[in-house]
Amino acid sequence: MTPPDWVTPDVMKKLRKLKDFGFQVTFGVYKQQEKSRLQGGILLGEIVKNLSKVAVQDAKQRLRMMMLSAHDTTVAALQASLNAFNGKQPPYASCQIFELHRDDNGSASVSMFYRNDTTVEPYPLQLPGCSLDCPLEEFVTDYKALYFRRPGQRVSTAFRRQRYR
User: Which of 15, 18, 116, 133 could pair with 94 as two cysteines, CB 3.0-4.6 Å apart?
Assistant: First the structure.
């Protein structure tokens, strides 16, 4: 099927800009933190919970990885909740990768990568205010305000008091 004559490269470029603008409005601009909590906070809370469990339960494991490949809106919502969304619609088959590392001294850290192109290696994502290898305890502390909670529900004591050895 061939596109109509009015579908020129310039029209396609404008449509891509409008599509990306729609994602920016949906996941940012106005009340970004509140929207992030509702849109990506549930998933972020589960990811942090799983990374925390692995870090505490199996000290001999050197590396763990979690990978999320989902609908574009789900990937964008997660990235927005991490304050790592680039404002563009995630392409088909893109994925967000979390790696858990344990140093020889026993401390755990999280590295994040984003794969949105199968022809290149995943891009490292640096979280605002953290190094590329973000200490797990800092990761949990920095993002606990964005975990989804029902009104009046407190942050789990597991996230507030857990030590990562």
Answer: 116
